[in-house]
Amino acid sequence: MGLRALLEREPGLECAGEAADGAAALALVRRTRPDVLLLDIRMPGTDGLAVLRALAGDPELRGTRVVVVTTFAVDEYVFAALQAGASGFVLKDSAPDELVNAVRVVAAGEALLSPAITRKVIGLFGRHGTEPVEGLDLLTPRERELAAWVATGRSNEEIARELVISPETVRTHVSRAMVKLRARDRAQLVVFAMRAGLTPPG
């Protein structure tokens, strides 16, 4: 109820519905086809990870982007949620403007990970080592560099400021990297970059 009240005060945002568990959430998504779904990990019956996998496995529902909102910042949940197709991951105790921003960012096609979550994911991949990523050899050096920056959790604007280039240049290279790696969205690009062990220079 708190999230609904928060979101409905925001211009341009409309709450399509709310559900008490995973099965009800899936039914609601099938009925209303929302742009963004705020999803908890732990729910009675069908949990959030099962909902994510069901959405990813249904071509008609892949248009709904998912922000995982949870009290659990445990590595295994973060990793599993990203692997299953989450586009954003924020904690329930985040400031209200962070939650609203998460919805807007993900609706615009970006990925969103809080800095704390990003550090956990990077640490997890660091412990597990690197893996081959199909299409990685097709990336230009600049595309590899930009994919590595995306994996730090920064937005295009933040990367542009860091590298002193335009956000449009960042967007172009990131988009090309996504096409070559066949990443369904920016969040999956983060997963691929981390799997490959890509890190920004310096």
From TrEMBL:
The keyword Methyltransferase is annotated on this UniProt entry: no
Keyword annotations of the record: DNA-binding, Phosphoprotein, Transcription, Transcription regulation
InterPro entries referenced in this protein's UniProt entry, alphabetically: NreC/VraR/RcsB-like_REC, Sig_transdc_resp-reg_receiver, Tscrpt_reg_LuxR_C, WalR-like
Protein name: Response regulator transcription factor
Chain ranges of the HTH luxR-type domain: 132-197
Residues passing through the membrane, by range: none
Positions carrying 4-aspartylphosphate: D40
